[in-house]
Design brief:
heterodimer, A: about 270 residues, mainly alpha, MetI-like fold, 14 helices, about 75% helix, globular, B: about 300 residues, 13 helices
Chain lengths: ~270, ~300
Protein backbone atom coordinates (compact mmCIF):
# COMPACT_ATOMS: atom_id res chain seq x y z
CA UNK A 1 0.00 0.00 0.00
CA UNK A 2 2.08 2.94 -1.16
CA UNK A 3 0.75 6.48 -1.16
CA UNK A 4 0.33 8.22 -4.48
CA UNK A 5 3.26 10.60 -4.47
CA UNK A 6 6.70 9.05 -3.95
CA UNK A 7 5.54 5.89 -2.18
CA UNK A 8 9.05 4.86 -1.20
CA UNK A 9 9.79 8.00 0.75
CA UNK A 10 6.42 8.09 2.50
CA UNK A 11 6.80 4.47 3.51
CA UNK A 12 10.27 5.06 4.91
CA UNK A 13 8.99 8.05 6.85
CA UNK A 14 6.17 6.00 8.32
CA UNK A 15 8.49 3.16 9.26
CA UNK A 16 10.76 5.64 11.01
CA UNK A 17 7.80 7.14 12.83
CA UNK A 18 6.54 3.74 13.95
CA UNK A 19 9.95 2.77 15.28
CA UNK A 20 10.48 6.10 16.98
CA UNK A 21 7.19 5.73 18.79
CA UNK A 22 8.09 2.17 19.77
CA UNK A 23 11.43 3.33 21.19
CA UNK A 24 9.64 6.04 23.13
CA UNK A 25 7.17 3.48 24.43
CA UNK A 26 9.80 1.04 25.61
CA UNK A 27 12.18 3.68 26.99
CA UNK A 28 10.74 3.86 30.53
CA UNK A 29 11.15 0.11 30.86
CA UNK A 30 14.72 0.13 29.57
CA UNK A 31 15.55 2.90 32.00
CA UNK A 32 14.08 0.90 34.87
CA UNK A 33 16.07 -2.18 33.84
CA UNK A 34 19.27 -0.16 33.63
CA UNK A 35 18.79 1.22 37.11
CA UNK A 36 17.81 -2.09 38.65
CA UNK A 37 20.74 -4.05 37.26
CA UNK A 38 23.50 -1.53 38.05
CA UNK A 39 24.99 -0.28 41.34
CA UNK A 40 23.21 2.82 42.57
CA UNK A 41 26.01 5.22 41.61
CA UNK A 42 25.26 4.31 37.98
CA UNK A 43 21.51 4.76 38.43
CA UNK A 44 21.46 7.96 36.46
CA UNK A 45 24.66 7.92 34.46
CA UNK A 46 24.94 5.80 31.41
CA UNK A 47 28.41 4.37 31.09
CA UNK A 48 28.63 1.47 28.74
CA UNK A 49 31.03 -0.41 30.98
CA UNK A 50 29.09 0.01 34.22
CA UNK A 51 29.24 -3.26 36.17
CA UNK A 52 26.11 -5.38 36.25
CA UNK A 53 24.79 -6.53 39.61
CA UNK A 54 21.91 -8.39 41.22
CA UNK A 55 22.58 -6.72 44.56
CA UNK A 56 19.57 -4.40 44.24
CA UNK A 57 17.22 -7.34 43.86
CA UNK A 58 18.82 -9.08 46.82
CA UNK A 59 18.48 -5.94 48.96
CA UNK A 60 14.86 -5.43 47.98
CA UNK A 61 14.01 -9.06 48.66
CA UNK A 62 15.64 -8.83 52.09
CA UNK A 63 14.03 -5.50 52.99
CA UNK A 64 10.37 -6.53 52.73
CA UNK A 65 8.35 -9.77 52.94
CA UNK A 66 8.06 -10.12 49.16
CA UNK A 67 7.81 -13.90 49.32
CA UNK A 68 4.63 -13.50 51.36
CA UNK A 69 3.32 -10.88 48.94
CA UNK A 70 4.00 -13.23 46.01
CA UNK A 71 2.17 -15.98 47.84
CA UNK A 72 -0.81 -13.69 48.59
CA UNK A 73 -1.11 -12.46 45.02
CA UNK A 74 -0.86 -15.98 43.60
CA UNK A 75 -3.56 -17.32 45.92
CA UNK A 76 -5.73 -14.26 45.31
CA UNK A 77 -5.49 -14.41 41.53
CA UNK A 78 -6.16 -18.17 41.48
CA UNK A 79 -9.08 -17.86 43.88
CA UNK A 80 -10.73 -15.10 41.86
CA UNK A 81 -10.19 -16.91 38.56
CA UNK A 82 -11.66 -20.22 39.73
CA UNK A 83 -14.69 -18.50 41.26
CA UNK A 84 -15.18 -16.39 38.14
CA UNK A 85 -14.98 -19.37 35.81
CA UNK A 86 -17.60 -21.31 37.77
CA UNK A 87 -20.01 -18.43 38.49
CA UNK A 88 -19.79 -16.84 35.06
CA UNK A 89 -20.21 -20.16 33.25
CA UNK A 90 -23.40 -20.97 35.16
CA UNK A 91 -24.87 -17.50 34.74
CA UNK A 92 -23.90 -17.25 31.06
CA UNK A 93 -25.51 -20.64 30.40
CA UNK A 94 -28.72 -19.44 32.06
CA UNK A 95 -28.77 -16.27 29.97
CA UNK A 96 -27.91 -18.00 26.71
CA UNK A 97 -30.11 -21.07 26.82
CA UNK A 98 -32.87 -20.77 29.43
CA UNK A 99 -36.08 -18.86 28.90
CA UNK A 100 -37.29 -17.55 32.22
CA UNK A 101 -39.25 -14.58 33.47
CA UNK A 102 -37.14 -11.56 34.29
CA UNK A 103 -34.16 -12.78 32.27
CA UNK A 104 -33.73 -9.57 30.30
CA UNK A 105 -34.06 -7.40 33.40
CA UNK A 106 -31.48 -9.55 35.16
CA UNK A 107 -29.14 -9.24 32.20
CA UNK A 108 -29.31 -5.46 32.30
CA UNK A 109 -28.67 -5.60 36.06
CA UNK A 110 -25.56 -7.67 35.36
CA UNK A 111 -24.32 -5.26 32.70
CA UNK A 112 -24.46 -2.41 35.22
CA UNK A 113 -21.24 -3.77 36.69
CA UNK A 114 -19.44 -3.00 33.43
CA UNK A 115 -20.02 0.68 34.17
CA UNK A 116 -19.87 0.70 37.95
CA UNK A 117 -16.86 -1.38 38.79
CA UNK A 118 -16.37 -2.45 42.41
CA UNK A 119 -13.62 0.07 43.14
CA UNK A 120 -16.03 2.96 42.54
CA UNK A 121 -18.09 1.72 45.49
CA UNK A 122 -15.13 1.22 47.78
CA UNK A 123 -16.52 3.04 50.80
CA UNK A 124 -19.70 0.94 51.01
CA UNK A 125 -17.91 -2.27 50.10
CA UNK A 126 -15.41 -1.61 52.86
CA UNK A 127 -18.34 -1.25 55.23
CA UNK A 128 -19.81 -4.55 54.01
CA UNK A 129 -16.49 -6.34 54.57
CA UNK A 130 -16.26 -4.96 58.09
CA UNK A 131 -19.82 -6.13 58.85
CA UNK A 132 -18.90 -9.57 57.48
CA UNK A 133 -15.85 -9.47 59.74
CA UNK A 134 -13.41 -10.29 56.94
CA UNK A 135 -11.43 -7.05 56.62
CA UNK A 136 -7.76 -7.63 55.89
CA UNK A 137 -8.25 -11.08 54.34
CA UNK A 138 -7.75 -12.38 50.81
CA UNK A 139 -11.48 -13.21 50.32
CA UNK A 140 -12.30 -9.58 51.12
CA UNK A 141 -10.11 -8.48 48.19
CA UNK A 142 -11.55 -11.07 45.85
CA UNK A 143 -15.28 -11.23 46.63
CA UNK A 144 -16.46 -8.08 44.79
CA UNK A 145 -14.85 -9.33 41.57
CA UNK A 146 -15.97 -12.95 41.58
CA UNK A 147 -19.23 -12.41 39.73
CA UNK A 148 -17.72 -10.70 36.70
CA UNK A 149 -20.21 -9.00 34.38
CA UNK A 150 -17.52 -9.01 31.72
CA UNK A 151 -17.08 -12.78 32.03
CA UNK A 152 -20.81 -13.43 31.99
CA UNK A 153 -21.26 -11.26 28.93
CA UNK A 154 -18.34 -12.80 27.07
CA UNK A 155 -19.43 -16.39 27.74
CA UNK A 156 -23.08 -15.69 27.00
CA UNK A 157 -22.13 -14.36 23.58
CA UNK A 158 -20.03 -17.45 22.97
CA UNK A 159 -22.64 -19.93 24.17
CA UNK A 160 -25.23 -18.31 21.93
CA UNK A 161 -23.14 -19.05 18.84
CA UNK A 162 -23.03 -22.78 19.64
CA UNK A 163 -25.62 -24.62 17.53
CA UNK A 164 -28.59 -25.78 19.53
CA UNK A 165 -28.59 -29.09 17.64
CA UNK A 166 -25.51 -30.15 19.63
CA UNK A 167 -27.43 -29.64 22.85
CA UNK A 168 -30.48 -31.48 21.51
CA UNK A 169 -28.31 -34.41 20.47
CA UNK A 170 -26.82 -34.64 23.94
CA UNK A 171 -30.27 -34.43 25.50
CA UNK A 172 -31.51 -37.31 23.35
CA UNK A 173 -28.66 -39.35 24.77
CA UNK A 174 -30.06 -38.63 28.21
CA UNK A 175 -27.65 -35.91 29.44
CA UNK A 176 -29.02 -33.46 32.03
CA UNK A 177 -28.48 -29.70 32.02
CA UNK A 178 -25.21 -29.77 33.94
CA UNK A 179 -23.81 -32.58 31.79
CA UNK A 180 -24.77 -30.71 28.63
CA UNK A 181 -23.00 -27.62 29.94
CA UNK A 182 -19.83 -29.55 30.80
CA UNK A 183 -19.74 -31.79 27.71
CA UNK A 184 -21.01 -29.47 24.98
CA UNK A 185 -20.68 -25.80 25.88
CA UNK A 186 -17.53 -25.61 28.00
CA UNK A 187 -15.25 -27.57 25.61
CA UNK A 188 -16.40 -25.53 22.61
CA UNK A 189 -15.75 -22.25 24.44
CA UNK A 190 -12.16 -23.13 25.34
CA UNK A 191 -10.44 -20.26 23.47
CA UNK A 192 -12.78 -17.80 25.13
CA UNK A 193 -11.98 -19.26 28.53
CA UNK A 194 -8.29 -18.85 27.82
CA UNK A 195 -8.84 -15.26 26.73
CA UNK A 196 -10.88 -14.45 29.81
CA UNK A 197 -8.34 -16.14 32.09
CA UNK A 198 -5.43 -14.12 30.73
CA UNK A 199 -7.34 -10.86 31.01
CA UNK A 200 -8.53 -11.70 34.52
CA UNK A 201 -5.12 -12.78 35.80
CA UNK A 202 -3.37 -9.69 34.49
CA UNK A 203 -6.12 -7.43 35.83
CA UNK A 204 -6.02 -8.87 39.33
CA UNK A 205 -2.25 -9.22 39.48
CA UNK A 206 -2.19 -5.48 38.82
CA UNK A 207 -5.19 -4.34 40.85
CA UNK A 208 -4.31 -1.83 43.52
CA UNK A 209 -6.83 0.62 44.96
CA UNK A 210 -9.38 -1.80 46.46
CA UNK A 211 -6.68 -4.10 47.94
CA UNK A 212 -4.97 -1.00 49.36
CA UNK A 213 -8.15 0.00 51.14
CA UNK A 214 -9.19 -3.39 52.44
CA UNK A 215 -5.83 -4.77 53.65
CA UNK A 216 -3.55 -3.53 56.38
CA UNK A 217 -1.14 -6.32 57.19
CA UNK A 218 1.54 -8.43 55.56
CA UNK A 219 -0.75 -11.47 55.82
CA UNK A 220 -3.17 -10.26 53.19
CA UNK A 221 -1.34 -7.62 51.16
CA UNK A 222 -0.92 -8.43 47.49
CA UNK A 223 2.26 -7.51 45.61
CA UNK A 224 1.01 -4.18 44.32
CA UNK A 225 0.14 -2.90 47.79
CA UNK A 226 3.29 -4.44 49.23
CA UNK A 227 5.36 -2.67 46.60
CA UNK A 228 3.70 0.64 47.39
CA UNK A 229 4.26 0.25 51.15
CA UNK A 230 7.84 -0.76 50.46
CA UNK A 231 8.70 2.09 48.13
CA UNK A 232 6.93 4.83 50.06
CA UNK A 233 7.82 3.91 53.64
CA UNK A 234 10.79 1.61 53.85
CA UNK A 235 13.12 2.91 51.23
CA UNK A 236 13.32 6.66 51.19
CA UNK A 237 14.68 7.38 47.75
CA UNK A 238 17.02 4.56 46.79
CA UNK A 239 15.84 4.28 43.22
CA UNK A 240 18.01 1.28 42.40
CA UNK A 241 16.25 -0.82 45.01
CA UNK A 242 12.80 0.55 44.22
CA UNK A 243 13.12 -0.19 40.51
CA UNK A 244 14.52 -3.64 41.32
CA UNK A 245 11.47 -4.32 43.49
CA UNK A 246 9.21 -2.96 40.78
CA UNK A 247 10.71 -5.23 38.15
CA UNK A 248 10.71 -8.19 40.51
CA UNK A 249 7.00 -7.87 41.31
CA UNK A 250 6.07 -7.50 37.64
CA UNK A 251 8.46 -10.16 36.38
CA UNK A 252 6.12 -13.20 36.40
CA UNK A 253 3.50 -11.36 34.39
CA UNK A 254 6.07 -9.78 32.09
CA UNK A 255 7.81 -13.11 31.42
CA UNK A 256 4.48 -14.83 30.81
CA UNK A 257 3.56 -12.03 28.45
CA UNK A 258 6.83 -12.26 26.51
CA UNK A 259 6.54 -16.04 26.22
CA UNK A 260 2.87 -16.10 25.22
CA UNK A 261 2.73 -12.75 23.48
CA UNK A 262 0.57 -13.96 20.64
CA UNK A 263 -1.97 -15.59 22.97
CA UNK A 264 -2.08 -12.49 25.16
CA UNK A 265 -2.73 -10.14 22.28
CA UNK A 266 -5.26 -12.49 20.72
CA UNK A 267 -6.99 -12.93 24.07
CA UNK A 268 -7.32 -9.22 24.63
CA UNK A 269 -8.55 -8.92 21.05
CA UNK A 270 -11.09 -11.71 21.49
CA UNK A 271 -12.26 -10.18 24.74
CA UNK A 272 -12.69 -6.82 23.04
CA UNK A 273 -14.86 -7.95 20.14
CA UNK A 274 -18.44 -8.14 21.19
CA UNK B 1 -50.98 -28.89 34.87
CA UNK B 2 -50.03 -30.12 31.41
CA UNK B 3 -46.60 -31.37 30.43
CA UNK B 4 -45.57 -28.33 28.37
CA UNK B 5 -46.33 -25.96 31.22
CA UNK B 6 -44.49 -27.98 33.82
CA UNK B 7 -41.47 -28.28 31.57
CA UNK B 8 -41.48 -24.53 31.07
CA UNK B 9 -41.63 -24.07 34.83
CA UNK B 10 -38.72 -26.45 35.23
CA UNK B 11 -36.67 -24.47 32.69
CA UNK B 12 -37.45 -21.33 34.61
CA UNK B 13 -36.36 -22.84 37.92
CA UNK B 14 -33.17 -24.20 36.38
CA UNK B 15 -32.39 -20.83 34.85
CA UNK B 16 -32.77 -19.02 38.12
CA UNK B 17 -30.76 -21.63 40.00
CA UNK B 18 -27.87 -21.30 37.54
CA UNK B 19 -28.00 -17.55 37.85
CA UNK B 20 -28.35 -17.41 41.61
CA UNK B 21 -24.69 -17.61 42.78
CA UNK B 22 -23.44 -14.90 40.44
CA UNK B 23 -26.53 -12.76 40.93
CA UNK B 24 -26.29 -12.78 44.72
CA UNK B 25 -22.65 -11.66 44.64
CA UNK B 26 -23.49 -8.95 42.13
CA UNK B 27 -26.35 -7.72 44.28
CA UNK B 28 -24.21 -7.78 47.42
CA UNK B 29 -21.22 -5.91 45.96
CA UNK B 30 -22.68 -3.74 43.18
CA UNK B 31 -26.40 -3.06 43.51
CA UNK B 32 -26.71 -3.00 47.27
CA UNK B 33 -23.70 -0.70 47.81
CA UNK B 34 -24.92 1.62 45.06
CA UNK B 35 -28.29 1.96 46.79
CA UNK B 36 -26.64 2.21 50.21
CA UNK B 37 -24.40 5.00 48.92
CA UNK B 38 -27.50 6.89 47.83
CA UNK B 39 -29.19 6.47 51.24
CA UNK B 40 -26.06 7.23 53.28
CA UNK B 41 -25.51 10.44 51.38
CA UNK B 42 -28.54 11.84 53.27
CA UNK B 43 -27.20 10.87 56.71
CA UNK B 44 -24.36 12.17 58.86
CA UNK B 45 -21.19 10.20 59.53
CA UNK B 46 -21.45 8.27 62.81
CA UNK B 47 -18.70 9.44 65.18
CA UNK B 48 -17.97 7.45 68.30
CA UNK B 49 -21.13 7.37 70.42
CA UNK B 50 -22.95 9.77 68.12
CA UNK B 51 -25.24 7.84 65.84
CA UNK B 52 -25.73 8.66 62.21
CA UNK B 53 -28.75 10.97 61.77
CA UNK B 54 -30.80 12.19 58.81
CA UNK B 55 -29.34 15.44 57.53
CA UNK B 56 -31.23 15.80 54.25
CA UNK B 57 -29.16 17.54 51.63
CA UNK B 58 -26.45 18.76 54.03
CA UNK B 59 -23.74 16.57 52.51
CA UNK B 60 -24.59 17.86 49.06
CA UNK B 61 -24.61 21.43 50.35
CA UNK B 62 -21.17 20.84 51.83
CA UNK B 63 -20.08 19.46 48.47
CA UNK B 64 -21.28 22.45 46.46
CA UNK B 65 -19.46 24.75 48.87
CA UNK B 66 -16.30 22.63 48.89
CA UNK B 67 -13.66 24.22 46.63
CA UNK B 68 -11.70 20.96 46.59
CA UNK B 69 -14.69 19.15 45.10
CA UNK B 70 -14.86 21.61 42.23
CA UNK B 71 -11.11 21.42 41.86
CA UNK B 72 -11.06 17.63 41.52
CA UNK B 73 -14.03 17.69 39.17
CA UNK B 74 -12.26 20.19 36.90
CA UNK B 75 -9.05 18.19 37.17
CA UNK B 76 -10.96 15.09 36.14
CA UNK B 77 -12.39 16.90 33.12
CA UNK B 78 -8.92 18.10 32.08
CA UNK B 79 -7.48 14.65 32.71
CA UNK B 80 -10.16 13.04 30.52
CA UNK B 81 -9.78 15.66 27.78
CA UNK B 82 -6.01 15.36 27.86
CA UNK B 83 -5.89 11.58 27.93
CA UNK B 84 -8.71 10.31 25.76
CA UNK B 85 -8.27 11.96 22.33
CA UNK B 86 -4.50 11.49 22.28
CA UNK B 87 -4.53 7.89 23.45
CA UNK B 88 -7.28 6.97 20.99
CA UNK B 89 -5.50 8.76 18.15
CA UNK B 90 -2.22 7.06 18.95
CA UNK B 91 -3.97 3.72 19.32
CA UNK B 92 -5.43 4.05 15.85
CA UNK B 93 -2.07 5.04 14.39
CA UNK B 94 -0.34 2.12 16.12
CA UNK B 95 -2.97 -0.32 14.91
CA UNK B 96 -2.68 0.86 11.31
CA UNK B 97 1.10 0.58 11.45
CA UNK B 98 1.09 -2.85 13.04
CA UNK B 99 -1.59 -4.03 10.62
CA UNK B 100 0.30 -2.71 7.59
CA UNK B 101 3.54 -3.72 5.90
CA UNK B 102 6.14 -2.27 8.21
CA UNK B 103 9.43 -4.00 8.99
CA UNK B 104 9.51 -5.61 12.44
CA UNK B 105 5.77 -5.56 13.02
CA UNK B 106 6.00 -8.12 15.82
CA UNK B 107 8.50 -6.01 17.74
CA UNK B 108 6.45 -2.86 17.27
CA UNK B 109 3.34 -4.55 18.58
CA UNK B 110 5.28 -5.85 21.55
CA UNK B 111 6.64 -2.41 22.38
CA UNK B 112 3.25 -0.72 22.08
CA UNK B 113 1.39 -3.33 24.08
CA UNK B 114 3.82 -3.96 26.94
CA UNK B 115 2.73 -1.03 29.15
CA UNK B 116 -0.75 -2.56 29.21
CA UNK B 117 0.31 -5.71 31.04
CA UNK B 118 2.33 -3.83 33.66
CA UNK B 119 0.62 -2.84 36.90
CA UNK B 120 -0.20 0.88 37.01
CA UNK B 121 1.54 1.01 40.36
CA UNK B 122 4.81 -0.30 38.90
CA UNK B 123 4.47 2.03 35.93
CA UNK B 124 3.94 4.93 38.32
CA UNK B 125 7.10 4.04 40.23
CA UNK B 126 9.12 4.05 37.03
CA UNK B 127 7.67 7.35 35.84
CA UNK B 128 8.14 8.88 39.28
CA UNK B 129 11.83 8.17 38.83
CA UNK B 130 11.64 9.68 35.35
CA UNK B 131 10.22 12.91 36.70
CA UNK B 132 12.54 13.19 39.71
CA UNK B 133 14.33 16.55 39.79
CA UNK B 134 18.10 16.40 39.25
CA UNK B 135 18.33 12.60 38.81
CA UNK B 136 15.39 11.77 36.58
CA UNK B 137 15.62 11.40 32.83
CA UNK B 138 13.72 14.61 32.14
CA UNK B 139 15.93 16.59 34.45
CA UNK B 140 19.00 15.13 32.71
CA UNK B 141 17.66 16.05 29.30
CA UNK B 142 16.98 19.58 30.51
CA UNK B 143 20.50 19.69 31.97
CA UNK B 144 22.02 18.53 28.72
CA UNK B 145 20.44 21.53 27.04
CA UNK B 146 21.74 23.79 29.77
CA UNK B 147 18.34 24.40 31.31
CA UNK B 148 17.79 24.33 35.06
CA UNK B 149 16.26 21.23 36.62
CA UNK B 150 12.60 21.63 37.33
CA UNK B 151 10.32 19.78 39.73
CA UNK B 152 7.65 18.66 37.28
CA UNK B 153 5.52 16.87 39.88
CA UNK B 154 6.00 19.62 42.45
CA UNK B 155 4.47 22.37 40.37
CA UNK B 156 0.74 23.02 40.14
CA UNK B 157 1.12 23.94 36.48
CA UNK B 158 2.77 20.77 35.25
CA UNK B 159 1.70 17.98 37.58
CA UNK B 160 -1.58 17.08 35.87
CA UNK B 161 0.09 17.05 32.45
CA UNK B 162 2.69 14.62 33.84
CA UNK B 163 -0.07 12.26 34.97
CA UNK B 164 -1.82 12.59 31.61
CA UNK B 165 1.37 11.50 29.84
CA UNK B 166 1.59 8.42 32.05
CA UNK B 167 -2.05 7.51 31.38
CA UNK B 168 -1.63 7.92 27.61
CA UNK B 169 1.48 5.76 27.69
CA UNK B 170 -0.33 3.08 29.67
CA UNK B 171 -3.57 3.01 27.66
CA UNK B 172 -2.74 3.62 24.00
CA UNK B 173 -1.43 0.08 23.48
CA UNK B 174 -4.52 -1.37 25.11
CA UNK B 175 -6.86 0.53 22.80
CA UNK B 176 -4.65 -0.41 19.85
CA UNK B 177 -5.70 -4.03 20.32
CA UNK B 178 -9.36 -3.23 19.70
CA UNK B 179 -8.53 -1.29 16.54
CA UNK B 180 -6.27 -4.07 15.39
CA UNK B 181 -9.08 -6.59 15.82
CA UNK B 182 -11.43 -4.36 13.85
CA UNK B 183 -8.90 -3.65 11.08
CA UNK B 184 -8.35 -7.35 10.54
CA UNK B 185 -12.03 -7.73 9.81
CA UNK B 186 -11.97 -5.17 7.02
CA UNK B 187 -11.62 -6.95 3.70
CA UNK B 188 -8.30 -6.24 1.93
CA UNK B 189 -10.28 -6.17 -1.35
CA UNK B 190 -11.54 -2.72 -0.36
CA UNK B 191 -8.03 -1.29 -0.23
CA UNK B 192 -7.14 -2.99 -3.50
CA UNK B 193 -10.20 -1.62 -5.24
CA UNK B 194 -9.49 1.85 -3.90
CA UNK B 195 -5.87 1.81 -5.05
CA UNK B 196 -6.95 0.66 -8.52
CA UNK B 197 -9.36 3.58 -8.57
CA UNK B 198 -6.40 5.78 -7.71
CA UNK B 199 -7.54 6.84 -4.28
CA UNK B 200 -4.80 8.12 -2.00
CA UNK B 201 -4.18 6.33 1.28
CA UNK B 202 -5.40 9.32 3.25
CA UNK B 203 -8.58 9.48 1.21
CA UNK B 204 -9.14 5.76 1.71
CA UNK B 205 -8.62 6.13 5.45
CA UNK B 206 -10.95 9.11 5.74
CA UNK B 207 -13.75 7.72 3.60
CA UNK B 208 -13.55 3.96 4.19
CA UNK B 209 -11.41 2.83 7.13
CA UNK B 210 -12.39 5.45 9.67
CA UNK B 211 -16.16 5.14 9.15
CA UNK B 212 -15.87 1.35 9.30
CA UNK B 213 -13.99 1.69 12.58
CA UNK B 214 -16.65 3.94 14.10
CA UNK B 215 -18.22 1.27 16.34
CA UNK B 216 -14.75 0.44 17.68
CA UNK B 217 -14.00 4.09 18.27
CA UNK B 218 -17.21 4.49 20.26
CA UNK B 219 -16.51 1.34 22.25
CA UNK B 220 -12.97 2.48 23.02
CA UNK B 221 -14.26 5.95 23.87
CA UNK B 222 -16.68 4.60 26.46
CA UNK B 223 -13.93 2.49 28.01
CA UNK B 224 -11.55 5.42 28.01
CA UNK B 225 -14.08 7.61 29.81
CA UNK B 226 -14.74 4.91 32.42
CA UNK B 227 -11.00 4.54 32.94
CA UNK B 228 -10.53 8.26 33.40
CA UNK B 229 -12.87 8.04 36.39
CA UNK B 230 -11.67 4.69 37.66
CA UNK B 231 -7.88 4.77 37.40
CA UNK B 232 -6.25 6.63 40.26
CA UNK B 233 -3.48 4.18 41.25
CA UNK B 234 -0.79 6.42 39.80
CA UNK B 235 -1.96 9.36 41.89
CA UNK B 236 -1.49 7.39 45.10
CA UNK B 237 2.08 6.60 44.10
CA UNK B 238 3.20 9.74 42.34
CA UNK B 239 1.58 12.79 43.90
CA UNK B 240 -1.01 11.89 46.54
CA UNK B 241 -3.20 14.45 44.80
CA UNK B 242 -0.76 17.29 45.43
CA UNK B 243 0.54 19.87 45.28
CA UNK B 244 -2.50 21.64 46.67
CA UNK B 245 -4.93 19.15 45.05
CA UNK B 246 -3.65 20.07 41.61
CA UNK B 247 -3.50 16.41 40.59
CA UNK B 248 -6.40 14.90 42.59
CA UNK B 249 -9.18 13.23 40.61
CA UNK B 250 -12.72 12.52 41.80
CA UNK B 251 -12.22 8.89 42.84
CA UNK B 252 -8.98 9.80 44.57
CA UNK B 253 -10.84 12.45 46.55
CA UNK B 254 -13.49 9.86 47.49
CA UNK B 255 -10.67 7.63 48.71
CA UNK B 256 -9.16 10.45 50.74
CA UNK B 257 -12.44 11.54 52.30
CA UNK B 258 -13.46 7.95 53.01
CA UNK B 259 -10.20 6.52 54.30
CA UNK B 260 -8.06 9.42 55.45
CA UNK B 261 -10.71 11.67 57.03
CA UNK B 262 -13.11 8.73 57.59
CA UNK B 263 -16.07 10.92 56.62
CA UNK B 264 -18.18 8.18 55.04
CA UNK B 265 -21.29 10.34 54.65
CA UNK B 266 -19.51 12.99 52.62
CA UNK B 267 -17.71 10.26 50.69
CA UNK B 268 -21.14 8.81 49.85
CA UNK B 269 -22.30 12.14 48.43
CA UNK B 270 -19.10 12.37 46.35
CA UNK B 271 -19.54 8.78 45.18
CA UNK B 272 -23.06 9.69 44.04
CA UNK B 273 -21.54 12.22 41.66
CA UNK B 274 -19.36 9.47 40.22
CA UNK B 275 -22.35 7.14 39.93
CA UNK B 276 -24.46 9.78 38.21
CA UNK B 277 -21.66 10.53 35.74
CA UNK B 278 -21.19 6.84 34.97
CA UNK B 279 -24.98 6.43 34.75
CA UNK B 280 -25.19 9.23 32.18
CA UNK B 281 -22.46 7.51 30.24
CA UNK B 282 -24.43 4.26 30.33
CA UNK B 283 -27.57 6.00 29.09
CA UNK B 284 -25.56 7.69 26.35
CA UNK B 285 -24.06 4.39 25.33
CA UNK B 286 -27.48 2.78 25.30
CA UNK B 287 -28.94 5.52 23.10
CA UNK B 288 -26.07 5.89 20.66
CA UNK B 289 -23.85 2.87 20.77
CA UNK B 290 -26.39 0.08 20.69
CA UNK B 291 -27.73 1.42 17.41
CA UNK B 292 -24.34 0.84 15.88
CA UNK B 293 -22.93 -2.18 17.69
CA UNK B 294 -25.57 -4.84 17.71
CA UNK B 295 -25.09 -7.64 20.17
CA UNK B 296 -25.14 -10.85 18.24
Amino acid sequence: MGSHSSPGFAHALETAGAWLLAMLWILPLLYAFWTAFHPSQYATQFTLLAPLTLQNFYNAWEAAPFSRYFFNTTVLVAMILVAQLVLCTLAAYAFARFAFRGRDVMFVLVLIQLMIMPEVLLVENYHTMSVLGILDTLPAIGLPYMASAFGIFLLRQTFKTIPKELEDAARVEGANAVQILMKVYVPLAKPVYLAFALVSVSFHWNNFLWPLVVTNSVNSRPLTVGLQVFSSVDQGIDWSIITAATIMTTAPLLIAFLLFQRQFVQSFMRAGIR
Amino acid sequence: MNAARSSRLLTSVHGWLLLLPAASLLVLFTHFPAVATFLHSFYSTPKGARKSVWVGLDNYRQMVEDPIFWKVLTNNAYFALGTIPVSIGLALLMAIWVNGKIAGKGWLRLAYFTPTVLPMIAVANIWLFFYTPQYGLFAQILNAFGMPSFNLLGSKDTVLACLIVVAIWKEAGFFMIFYLAALQQISPNLAEAASIEGASRWYFFRRITFPLLMPTTLFVLVNAIINSFRLVDHIVVMTKGGPDNASALLLYYVYEVGFKYWDSAYAAALTMVLLVLLGLLAVGQFLFLDRKIHYR
